[in-house]
Amino acid sequence: QVQLVESGGGLVQPGGSLRLSCAGSGIIFSIYRMGWYRQAPGKQRELVAHISSGDSTNYADSVKGRFTISRDNAKNTVYLQMNSLKPEDTAVYYCHARRQAAQVVQGPDYWGQGTQVTVSS
To answer: What pLDDT score was predicted for residue 121?
Structure first.
């Protein structure tokens, strides 16, 4: 059974930092593209960042230069370092996994339960 468990969310002031973690089990973590998505109230879920099985990264324009995604395959964990947080970053953040073979992403989508990030003074 595949499980993705996020942690690290919370309340932070504008300009502050948080690091989210997502621990995966039930998958061969190293061959999965891992990602972070977010969903704010009344809005659609959107991509924040991806990291491929080969460590290539992709970011939404809104977070480029502020957020960094990384992975530790030995720990089956993906991270999202969030700096210079803004109120508009407030959302539930979801971990995502999908199998990747070379440049092809395929198979079912797996999601974590989400962790709340609130940026407010």
So the answer is: 95
